[in-house]
C-alpha cells in the first residue's frame, strides 16, 4: 500500500509540478506527517523533492532534475488512458483516478495537449445516460468483496420474476453487451453462476471469508449469464428493422433475400431472453425454425392479445 502511494506521489509531482502536503494528505487519506515521511523516502530513493515557498509554492521535484518518462510510447499511453477513463466513468473508483494520474505523469509537458486531443478522439463511456451512483456503489462493494475474498448475500430476481436469497463467493465482475454480471460460486445451487447486478437487491458484503476456487472456464464461451441449452434459430425480419437487426447480429449471420427480407441463422441459449428478444420485434419478425419456439412465440403473442382484449371488453 505504501509503495503504491509513493509511486502515486512521484507521478503527481511530475504531472502537477507543485502540490501542497495537506492536499496530498487529503487525497491519500493519511496525515500530513505521513506525507512528509513519504517525501523523505522519495528523497532517499534519489528523486530530489523540495518545498518551494510562496503563494504558488508547495512540494515539487527539484528544478532541472529530469525523470525518464520513456517507459511507454505516446500511442500506448493514449490507449491506456482511454481504457482507464472509460472504466472510471462506470465505477467512479478513486484508485482508477490515481492510476490515471500516474499514467498522465508519463506524458512530457510539451505533448500534453496533443495527447489529450487524441484521447478525446475515441471516448469509452460504460455508464448509463441517467445518474447511477447507487449502481456504481454496488460495483465497488462487489469489487472489494472479490479482492478481499469475502462472501456476499443478496436477494436475486430471476428473469421469470422468482426471487431467491443467495449467498455467493464472488470471483469476477464481468461486463458484456451493456450489462454488468457477477460470476460467483453460489451456495444455493452449489455451482458457478452468473448474476446480473441490476437484479440484485439488498446486497451485503459479509465478514465470512473463503478460499478462492479455481475459476471455471465457462465465462469464456461468449454466452455469459445464459443457462439454457443452445438452439439454432432461423428468423425472417422485415427490412423496416434492418438497423436494429444489424446492431444485434454480425453481418455474417444474416443475408438479404430477393423479397427484400432479412434472413438470419444464429445460435442462442434457449431462455426467457430469447423469447423476449423475438417478441420485441413485434410483427416485423417471423420464426421459421425451430417449430417449438415458433409455437411458444405464437402462444405468448396470443396471451398478450388476450390481455388487451380483456381490458377493451371491460371498458365497453
Automatic annotation (TrEMBL):
HTH deoR-type domain residues: 2-57
Signal peptide residue numbers: none
Keywords of this entry: Transcription, Transcription regulation
Residue ranges the record marks as coiled coil: none
GO MF, one annotated term: DNA-binding transcription factor activity
Pfam family, any one: WCX
UniProt xrefs under InterPro entries: CBASS_pafABC_assoc_protein (IPR051534), DeoR_HTH (IPR001034), HTH_11 (IPR013196), PafC-like (IPR028349), WCX_dom (IPR057727), WH-like_DNA-bd_sf (IPR036388), WH_DNA-bd_sf (IPR036390), WYL_dom (IPR026881)
Gene3D superfamilies cross-referenced by the UniProt entry: Winged helix-like DNA-binding domain superfamily/Winged helix DNA-binding domain
Protein's recorded name: HTH deoR-type domain-containing protein
Species the sequence originates in: Lucifera butyrica
Record lineage: Bacteria, Bacillati, Bacillota, Negativicutes, Veillonellales
Amino acid at each position: 500500500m505504501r509503495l503504491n502511494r509513493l509511486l502515486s506521489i512521484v507521478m503527481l509531482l511530475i504531472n502537477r509540478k507543485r502540490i501542497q502536503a495537506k492536499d496530498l494528505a487529503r487525497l491519500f487519506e493519511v496525515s500530513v506527517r505521513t506525507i512528509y515521511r513519504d517525501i523523505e523516502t522519495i528523497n532517499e530513493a534519489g528523486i530530489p523533492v523540495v518545498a518551494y515557498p510562496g503563494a504558488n509554492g508547495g512540494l515539487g521535484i527539484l528544478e532541472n532534475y529530469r525523470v525518464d518518462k520513456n517507459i511507454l510510447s505516446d500511442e500506448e499511453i493514449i490507449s491506456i488512458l482511454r481504457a482507464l477513463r472509460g472504466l472510471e466513468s462506470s465505477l467512479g473508483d478513486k484508485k482508477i483516478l490515481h492510476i490515471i494520474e500516474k499514467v498522465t505523469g508519463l506524458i512530457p509537458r510539451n505533448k500534453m495537449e496533443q495527447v489529450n486531443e487524441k484521447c478525446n478522439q475515441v471516448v469509452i463511456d460504460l455508464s448509463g445516460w441517467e445518474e447511477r451512483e447507487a449502481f456504481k456503489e454496488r460495483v465497488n462493494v462487489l469489487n472489494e468483496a472479490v479482492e478481499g475474498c469475502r462472501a456476499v448475500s443478496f436477494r436475486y430476481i430471476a428473469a421469470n420474476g422468482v426471487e431467491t436469497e443467495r449467498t455467493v463467493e464472488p470471483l469476477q465482475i464481468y461486463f458484456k453487451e451493456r450489462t454488468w454480471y457477477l460470476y460467483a460460486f453460489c451456495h444455493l445451487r452449489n455451482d458457478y453462476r452468473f448474476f446480473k447486478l441490476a437484479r440484485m437487491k439488498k446486497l451485503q458484503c459479509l465478514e465470512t471469508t473463503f478460499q478462492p476456487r479455481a475459476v471455471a472456464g465457462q465465462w469464456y464461451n461468449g454466452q455469459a449469464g445464459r443457462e439454457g441449452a443452445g438452439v439454432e434459430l432461423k428468423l425472417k425480419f422485415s427490412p423496416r428493422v434492418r438497423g436494429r437487426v444489424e446492431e444485434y447480429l454480425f453481418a455474417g449471420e444474416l443475408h438479404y433475400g430477393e423479397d427484400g427480407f432479412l434472413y438470419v441463422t444464429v445460435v442462442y441459449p434457449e431462455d426467457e431472453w430469447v423469447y423476449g428478444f423475438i417478441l420485441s420485434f413485434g410483427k416485423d419478425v417471423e420464426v421459421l425454425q425451430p417449430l417449438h419456439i415458433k409455437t411458444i412465440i405464437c402462444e405468448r403473442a396470443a396471451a398478450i392479445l388476450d390481455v388487451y382484449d380483456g381490458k377493451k371488453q371491460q371498458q365497453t
